[in-house]
Specification:
Length: about 210
């Protein structure tokens, strides 16, 4: 007859097996997002190692988006709590904690958008997409915003919406004609314009926050 200790050991082993099952299932059900043959990777050993790297990247990216989401909520709460204090208090607060202004205000933009669409996806898309959506979200409905954040290329999709709303249907034709003449110069000018435009929009956003504190 099995002793009590033998039964305990058997039960412990059973529990360990059950705990490992979800992990094994996760390993088996993971589907690679990359066609490694396009990169010339045909060696099975290297491919297996790359897929393992891929899984780690996806895992940590998901963890990072969760952290961004939590930070965004915390910054929003702190800003609200400090809104009745002297101007610039919130900025001094997060700088004391070692955070940069650009990062914090991007978190706030993400949280503002999250409060409107109620979708965690806003914490996963690129910053450029968030900036463009923030500029046009008052001119489009919630479903159009969700269409952008769930598209394969949210940055490009948001920019398409912005161009459509600007009412300049000849933009694409003009760009093609000019690019044929001097592509590098046009790109350089466009880059400078975009940088100044982003800086202006960021300042406008900060100004709106300060006005809301009054």
């Amino acid at each position: 007859m099995a002793s009590v200790m033998d039964k305990i050991k058997a039960k412990t082993a059973e529990l360990k097996t059950q705990q490992n099952e979800p992990k094994q299932e996760l390993e088996q059900t993971y589907i690679s997002h990359v066609n490694y043959e396009e990169f010339g990777v045909v060696e099975n050993e290297i491919k297996v190692k790359l897929i393992n790297c891929e899984k780690k990247v996806v895992h940590h990216a998901n963890q990072m988006s969760k952290s961004i989401m939590e930070l965004s909520k915390v910054f929003y709460e702190a800003q609200r709590l400090l809104s009745n204090h002297a101007g610039g208090t919130f900025k001094k607060w997060f700088e004391e904690l070692g955070f940069k202004k650009d990062f914090v205000y991007m978190c706030l933009k993400r949280n503002d958008l999250f409060l409107e669409v109620a979708d965690d996806r806003v914490f996963q898309i690129p910053e450029r997409a968030i900036k463009t959506i923030s500029k046009i979200k008052d001119k489009i409905d919630i479903e159009e915003v969700k269409e952008i954040i769930y598209s394969e290329k949210p940055v490009e999709r948001a920019k398409e919406k912005e161009i459509r709303l600007s009412g300049c249907p000849t933009t694409e034709i003009e760009e093609v004609e000019i690019v044929e003449n001097d592509f590098d110069k046009i790109k350089e000018i466009e880059k400078k314009i975009a940088e100044h435009y982003r800086a202006i929009k960021d300042l406008e956003y900060e100004l709106s926050i300060l006005k809301n504190k009054k």
